[in-house]
Design brief:
The complex is a heterodimer of chains A (344) and B (274).
Chain A lengths: L1 E3 L2 E4 L11 E5 L6 H9 L10 E2 L2 E2 L10 E4 L11 H11 L4 H14 L15 H13 L5 E5 L7 H18 L3 E5 L2 H7 L2 E6 L2 E6 L1 H6 L4 H6 L4 E9 L2 E4 L4 E3 L10 E6 L5 E3 L7 E12 L3 E8 L4 E7 L12 E6 L4 E5 L2
Helix pairs in contact in A: 2-3, 2-4, 3-4, 4-5
Chain B lengths: L3 H41 L16 H8 L1 H34 L5 H13 L2 H14 L6 H26 L2 H9 L4 H12 L1 H16 L3 H7 L5 H11 L4 H24 L7
Classes of the chains: A alpha+beta (344), B mainly alpha (274).
């Protein structure tokens, strides 16, 4: 637990990172993810609780004694040192002999594909190259844990995607255990073995990207990850619920008993357009109220006759009839396409 | 477009007028600052025994007089020694103080900040009399170390102002990075922070040096019979006024300029290694 004055930045965090995995702390700003990273790195001392690295209690150990490699948001390369000097820095701090130091710097620069850039200064490199140097510097001393603090924020989209894959490859290749902080859910889904979604200093859900996306545990996660339709509903019988506005739906398996207040989650891509004669567990007649073209998909906002607002997203194949605002359409989904969560 | 063109032209010419006004103003300032030098340099090479401008003839006799006079040389040496020691002391005290004032979180910090700048506000003469009283009781009058202490108090605000400003804009993430890479805090400051604020450190040291090397009042009170260069120059003007003073001035200007050149060499940001 970490408190700042009256504000509790972290509360009741119980998180075990598995060896060799890439675990992402995902959350909006102010959710405590960066504070948690600082606690792990040793820049913050928790008011309560302990931090273990392997079997070693490092709660009170200074950052230098933790053996953790860290890549910072702005890279934090030392501008007065060359690339090679930057990468050599952690080795020098560990009093690695000169010859071995040089060899390992060379290997590390090779690893990030910058073998010929050792004599340059950081400011002579592009953003992506600086990022690689920061990465080389963070892994050159063989840390037992790698921390990445929103490292891709400053890169443009294309470079960011490339670097994400590269970081992932490197992490797998070196078998590094890594904790990655981001507020970008797409990035989290791409990079992680597991994601810890953080909200108000707590872990709202911990799971694989698939679990987080398909089976969000609560409203916060459902709303934060991906786009979703979340209908508030009351369970009225063993297997059916009434959505606000009076629409009845059949519940997916495992739903709670009558009287419970639940949310029903439907991902926009799970609803399909039904032509006459096609059936689904649940069908609804709507009118198109808004169209957003997204490239490979089109997003439609539909107004159901019962008053329900439904967002759907379908692939756009570039040919065939597309819908126009005001068109009438029947959409449907099976009950397994829906996922229920407790409302409160 | 047709409408906007004349407007743009007008704006252009107006900016041109401002430019010329600025040039003229800069030229005036330049002349004002340089005029004394234009007088001092020729007089120092004068053959006359009086401060006379323009000089009636040329010679190096006043430089010879300066160099061959033991009291002048002693005063020069003493001033350099005092200014050097003051610089070292002010940097050693002022730099950690700046770190504390910028980074620290403790009660009374803003008060300490004010106190550290106080020597700039208290009139030098008041300060000098107070220090004279104190050091007189401690029998330190006449010791060069006493002048160093007196000057250090005056030099610290310069160091604190400049180094604090540098630290305030310095990204603490750099230090964190160094620490995460295995450096102790002291090592991180030594290897990462200080090299990056070096231009400010050098400027601070230079100002500390000049503030002592040029200082008259404190040295007058504390120096006793052991004169610093400014005190000796003052006495020379009061007592015997001859062009030696001009020669000394030129030497002093050249000395300070030399330091300034060294400073600007050391003070430029990190240069490429190759």
């Amino acid at each position: 637990m970490r408190r700042f004055g009256e504000v509790t930045a972290l509360a009741g965090i119980d998180l075990a990172v598995r060896p060799g995995e890439m675990l992402t702390l995902l959350g909006p700003s102010g959710s405590g993810k960066t504070t948690l990273l600082k606690v792990i790195a040793g820049f913050e001392i928790p008011d309560e609780g302990e931090v273990y690295l392997g079997s070693r209690n490092v709660t009170l150990a200074p950052p230098a004694k933790r053996d953790i490699g860290m890549v910072f948001q702005n890279y934090a390369l030392f501008p007065h040192m060359t690339v090679a000097e930057n990468v050599a820095f952690p080795l020098q701090m560990r009093k690695v002999p000169r010859a071995e130091c040089e060899r390992r710097v060379r290997e590390a620069l090779q690893l990030v594909d910058l073998p010929a850039h050792g004599d340059r200064l950081p400011r002579q490199l592009s953003g992506g190259q600086q990022q690689r140097v920061a990465l080389a510097r963070a892994v050159v001393f063989g840390p037992s844990l790698l921390l990445l603090d929103e490292p891709f924020g400053a890169l443009d989209r294309k470079l960011r995607e490339q670097m994400q894959l590269e970081v992932r490859r490197l992490q797998r290749r070196l078998g590094l255990t890594a904790v990655f902080v981001t507020h970008d859910q797409e990035e989290a889904l791409v990079l992680s073995d597991r994601i810890a979604v953080m909200d108000a200093g707590r872990i709202a859900q911990l799971g694989t990207p698939q679990e987080i996306y398909r089976l969000p545990a609560n409203r916060f996660v459902a709303g934060f990850i991906g786009e979703s339709n979340l209908f508030r509903a009351k369970v009225v019988a063993a297997d059916s619920a009434e959505i606000e506005g009076g629409t009845r739906v059949r519940l997916p398996a495992g739903a709670p008993g009558a009287g419970a207040d639940i949310g029903l989650l439907l991902r926009p891509e799970r609803a399909t357009q039904l032509s006459a004669g096609e059936v689904a567990d649940f069908t609804i007649a709507c009118k198109v109220s808004e169209i957003v073209y997204l490239g490979e998909t089109i997003k439609y906002r539909l107004q159901a006759d019962g008053g329900l607002d439904v967002i759907v997203r379908w692939p756009f194949r570039g040919s065939g009839a597309t819908l126009a605002v005001g068109d009438r359409v029947t959409v449907g989904w099976d009950r397994d396409d829906m996922h229920w969560i407790h409302w409160s | 477009m047709e409408l906007s063109t004349p407007a743009r032209l007008r704006r252009h010419s107006r900016r041109g007028a401002w430019h010329y006004a600025l040039y003229a103003w800069c030229a005036l300032v330049f002349i004002f600052l340089m005029a004394p030098l234009v007088v001092v340099f020729p007089i120092s090479f004068s053959s006359s025994a009086y401060l006379q401008f323009p000089p009636p003839g040329w010679s190096l006799r006043w430089y010879a007089a300066y160099v061959s006079d033991a009291t002048w040389m002693e005063a020069t040496y003493r001033s350099l020694k005092i200014a050097g020691a003051t610089t070292v002391l002010a940097m050693l005290l002022g730099t950690p103080l700046s770190f504390s004032l910028v980074r620290g979180r403790y009660p009374g910090k803003s008060a300490l900040n004010q106190v550290s700048l106080l020597p700039l506000i208290v009139p030098v003469i008041v300060y000098s009399i107070a220090v004279y009283g104190l050091f007189g009781r401690l029998q330190l009058i006449g010791a060069w170390q006493a002048i160093v202490l007196g000057h250090t108090v005056h030099a610290i605000p310069f160091v604190v102002i400049i180094v604090s400003a540098a630290l305030r804009t310095f990204d603490i993430g750099q230090e964190h990075a160094a620490m995460s890479l295995g450096a102790s805090r002291a090592m991180a400051i030594w290897r990462v922070t200080l090299p990056q604020i070096r231009p400010s450190l050098v400027s601070a040291a230079f100002l500390a040096f000049i503030s002592s090397f040029d200082e008259l009042v404190v040295a007058m009170f504390l120096g006793g019979s052991n004169m610093t260069l400014p005190k000796k120059m003052f006495d020379n003007i009061v007592n015997e006024i001859d062009p030696t003073i001009a020669a000394v001035s030129v030497v002093q200007i050249i000395l300070v300029t030399a330091v300034l050149i060294v400073v600007s060499k050391l003070g430029s940001g990190a240069a490429p290694a190759n």
